[in-house]
Amino acid sequence: MNIKLILTTLILLGLAVALKRFREAPEPSLDFHSLSEKLELAEVRKITLRDATQATTLTETGDGTWGVAIRGNYPADLKKVSDLINDVTGSRILHRVASSAKHHERLGLLEPLPLKDSVKVEGSADGDRVAETPDEEGGDEKSFGHASSVTFEFGSGKTRTILLANPNPEKEARASTQGMNVRFSDEDVVYRLAKSPWITYDTPSWIEKSVPGFEGSEVRSISMNPGSTSAVLLTRSDRDAAFEIATLPEGQKLKVGDVSRLADAAKSLRIRDIAPADGAILPPGMGKTDFSTFELFDGRTYQFILGDKVKDGSSDVFYVKRTVSVSEDVTESSIKEKVAKESVEFEKWYYQFGGWTRTSLIKSPFELLESPASKENTGSKENPEGEPGETDSELFGAGLSASGIPEEGLETDSGTPPLPVGASSKQIGARHILIAFQGAERSTATRSRDDALKLASDLRKKISNGEKFEDLARNHSDGPSKSEGGDLGTFGKGQMVPAFEKIAWSLGLGEISQPVETPFGFHLILRTQ
């Protein structure tokens, strides 16, 4: 046998064995197991989040509370702040990815580009800063390789910045591993986290969405647009009594359930954003206003000054100025203190709500009076005693106003108002499965948008393989109709949010849609009627 051939074979076998051993060699041992071990988290006083287009700063405001700096330190969502710190710093480190700065650009872990100066935006406390625009010739190449960042500032004044980037399968051998690549800005070593932290750089996402409210049982009277042709005055003598309207046309009566929901409208309001009430800038839509005033049995009076609906991107929104006062007859100090505290806060801000909330806070007399047409078109169900019963919990029940618009805090996941009086009575029926994600309207889900889409797609495959739609809805849907197997009952055109309506009406009987995205998440829709 040729000696050269034997030697070549032995050399190649030796190289193969060496390469195998190299690949199977254990990772260099880590001297720490999470980023929190390198941070004095108890001393964090400020957190700045940056991506390619914007920056948001969260500031500790004392007693364990945080504020959103660009919104005048308006209270931040404490759970989100806590989750941010835990997710970014507490995630387990899987292994080292690289130890040299020459790999930073390839791994997308160069420091973020400088941001432009803030631009004042109408209706906001300040303009969000945006990234420097790439040169026309260079296109997006200017921002290639630059990371997002989370900067922690400590009580001592020192700062520590963590740079984060998703793995790139084309540039990294083990990019399929779950988690993100991270490094400290003052170190060259890159690590892989066991899971990707959820981070949003959108300022409104960080503000506390709940605002002070009150129970409907506390309301003595409701006055809307006094002095106008659409004025409404509802009163009652005590908490157990029913509301009465000041002028009731002969032969008609109040929609008891709708009046009750109106009284409850302010119980669990959730805002989208805020704007400063400093007089310098009037938020969009506040040039024309309506008024709703709720007088409570304990002497407090809350007034909502509602602006017109305006567009915020593709969404309808409106601004509200809230005021609170207390009767001079009230002597209880706790009530006076509560009113004084709320009054100071309300004075500072205009509150932005989703467009649907407006109809839950303001009504015309026509909307509160029963008529045969309104019964027909809202799909009301009769109970055994013959009185109007509770309607479908998702479309016509809790969370919907008299005209079917979802009330903030109880908003339906499909965004589906019943038809107004006089609208077409043509109806279809459907079930749906809602898969919400973090950041979607009214969502408490923690999954990412990508994970929600994947889950919705996986559920559709299961249905195609013979699993029952109703069972999967009960087990997986994030909508209030899950207990009913996702049953939405029947509805007409103009009731659903546009994306949902378009697909629902295009389906054949028994057909199931692909995942449909609405502001509430991803829906699978089954046409039933």
Largest sheet: 9 strands, antiparallel
Number of domains: 3
Strand order of the largest sheet: 4-3-2-1-6-7-8-9-5
Which of globular, elongated, flat, extended, rod-shaped describes the shape? globular
Give the uncertain stretches in residue-range form.
22-27, 117-143, 372-425
Strand content: 15-25%
Q: What is the CA–CA distance across the termini?
A: 81 Å
Report the count of strand segments.
22
The helix content, as a percent range, equals 10-25%
| Overall average pLDDT | 78
* Tally of helical runs: 10
Structural class: alpha+beta
Radius of gyration: 29 Å
Describe this structure in words.
The model is unreliable at 22-27, 117-143 and 372-425 (pLDDT under 50). The longest helix is centred in the first third of the chain and has 22 residues, at 3-24. Strands 4-3-2-1-6-7-8-9-5 form a nine-stranded antiparallel β-sheet, covered by helices on one side. Strands 10, 11, 12, 13, 14, 15, 16, 17 and 18 form a nine-stranded antiparallel β-sheet that branches. The chain has a four-stranded antiparallel β-sheet with strand order 20-19-22-21, with helices on both faces. The chain is α+β, with helices and mostly antiparallel strands and 529 residues long. The protein is 20% helix and 24% strand. It folds into three domains: 35-206, no CATH class; 216-370, no CATH class; 428-527, Chitinase A, domain 3.
